[in-house]
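Page 37, continued from 36.
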């Protein structure tokens, strides 16, 4: 980036080896739910650091996670109705689907999930799904609690109300009483102060900041482009009207976040760029690219709507021009994030940039890998780790598809078409480890004492064993994604889930 080297004070041993601030991508969200937090990318890195036992993260046990896990839902349908729902079975299947959604809603709004385990410790993974820059700046446990509405057992809209706020109460500190006012950034600052008398000035060794995706993601999850306005973009009460932040509004929020991060006592800080949200398979390009070499399709719609059946007057979608504008805004977001890191390094701080945007671009199947004429000069395919390359077929960025319980396509994205699978999170973890080694962070063997030699590699065999979408995908998820299309049409599943953030 054209910045000078920095000299890092390495006296003492920071008590907290890894702390992460972020949204769903950092929390470990999968298949429209948070449930597998022990396999988020920060938890994977902590495992490779040799400090998995000390890495604190929230848990969301019970009924598959929060707000609604699509994977057990599909498995339940498969067990009852096989690989397809016949016409005569459809009314019974709809009733079963709504009953399952109602059971999940009751668990979190009125049942055991309503009780938040008390803790005085601050989590090391401080991410909360659905959060953007303003949430990181302003939301605390007290604020979240005040925003949880009295639940209504609605027979129509059967999804957990205020799901993100409920999730946050398991992330942000609530005790002692004063801790309830701490935001994500404030909680990290408390960990930074925890030097534990070792003689060093840093309580945190490596701090990861991965925010900003939710300043544009709703453009594809809701298939609606509504640009931010002033006033309103920086207000917790009004920002929900917008699905994409204008770059100048993003930069205004980013400056405040960067100022807060500057005050956190972390030896190394790694900022992640914002991925191009239009690459996620939840929004599938249809009708053929406008011209050879173009990056964009005329329209983007749900992945189960075929080119032949797509009707722009009837089906949800955004235009290729809108997709290009959203990507252009994200490019400006990332220029600003890069500028923040450059400025900090010029001031002597040991800050780094993880190019998660470029990482996803290099994994983009439809945009680049399958269209050589669209590839820019810098583009090279991302080399999958050997354990993933050995899978049949190797994972890619298409929507997951199966044949008889065997994966035939996809594998990097989970069943919501937005968030990674476990092996997908492993790729992010590997890239983060590479940056941490650049910062000379020491990785230890599981005994917590023996240094590891370079290269430090993620144990992808372990991740594959724990990734049910890779090793045992739902048998009713064929290449046409008919069962997901049916579920969405019958229950309005995806809109309910993503608007619950």
């Amino acid at each position: 980036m054209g910045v000078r080297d920095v000299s890092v004070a390495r006296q003492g041993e920071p008590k907290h080896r890894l702390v992460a601030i972020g949204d769903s991508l950092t929390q470990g969200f999968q298949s429209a739910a948070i449930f597998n937090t022990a396999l988020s990318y920060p938890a994977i890195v902590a495992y490779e650091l040799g400090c998995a036992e000390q890495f604190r993260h929230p848990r969301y046990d019970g009924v598959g996670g929060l707000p609604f896990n699509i994977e057990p839902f599909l498995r339940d349908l498969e067990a009852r109705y096989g690989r397809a729902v016949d016409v005569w079975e459809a009314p019974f299947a709809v009733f079963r689907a709504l009953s399952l959604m109602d059971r999940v809603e009751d668990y979190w709004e009125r049942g055991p999930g309503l009780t938040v385990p008390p803790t005085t410790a601050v989590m090391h993974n401080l991410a909360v799904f659905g959060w953007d820059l303003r949430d990181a700046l302003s939301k605390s446990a007290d604020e979240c609690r005040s925003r949880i509405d009295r639940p209504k057992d609605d027979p129509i809209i059967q999804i957990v109300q205020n799901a993100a706020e409920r999730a946050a109460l398991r992330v942000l500190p609530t005790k002692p009483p004063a801790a309830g006012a701490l935001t994500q950034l404030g909680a990290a600052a408390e960990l930074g102060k925890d030097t534990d008398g070792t003689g060093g000035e840093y309580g945190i060794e490596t701090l990861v900041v991965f925010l900003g995706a939710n300043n544009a993601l709703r453009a594809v999850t809701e298939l609606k482009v509504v640009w931010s306005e002033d006033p309103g973009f920086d207000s917790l009460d009004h920002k929900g009207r917008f699905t994409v932040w204008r770059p100048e509004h993003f930069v205004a929020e980013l400056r405040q976040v960067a100022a807060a991060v500057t005050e956190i006592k972390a030896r190394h800080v790694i900022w992640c760029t914002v991925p191009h949200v239009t690459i996620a398979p939840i929004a599938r390009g249809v009708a053929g690219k406008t011209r050879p070499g173009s990056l964009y399709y005329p329209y983007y719609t749900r992945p189960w709507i075929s080119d032949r059946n797509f009707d722009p007057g009837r089906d949800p979608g955004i235009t290729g021009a809108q997709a290009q504008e959203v990507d252009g805004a994200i490019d400006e977001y990332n220029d600003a994030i890069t500028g923040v890191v450059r400025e900090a390094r010029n001031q002597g701080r040991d800050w780094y940039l993880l190019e998660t945007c470029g990482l996803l671009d290099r994994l983009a199947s439809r945009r680049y890998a399958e269209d050589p004429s669209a590839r820019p000069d810098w583009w090279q395919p991302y080399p999958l780790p050997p354990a993933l390359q050995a899978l049949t077929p190797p994972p890619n960025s298409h929507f997951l598809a199966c044949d008889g319980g065997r994966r035939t396509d996809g594998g990097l994205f989970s069943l919501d078409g937005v968030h990674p699978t476990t092996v997908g999170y492993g790729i992010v973890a590997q890239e983060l480890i590479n940056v941490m080694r650049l910062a000379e962070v020491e990785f230890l063997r599981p005994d917590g004492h023996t240094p590891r030699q370079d290269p430090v590699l993620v144990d992808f065999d372990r991740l594959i064993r724990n990734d049910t979408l890779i090793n045992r995908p739902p048998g009713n998820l064929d290449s046409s994604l008919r069962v997901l299309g049916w579920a969405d049409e019958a229950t309005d599943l995806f809109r309910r889930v993503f608007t619950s953030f």
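The first strand starts at residue 16 and ends at 22. Flag for discussion at group meeting. Residues 282 and 417 are 4 Å apart (CA to CA).
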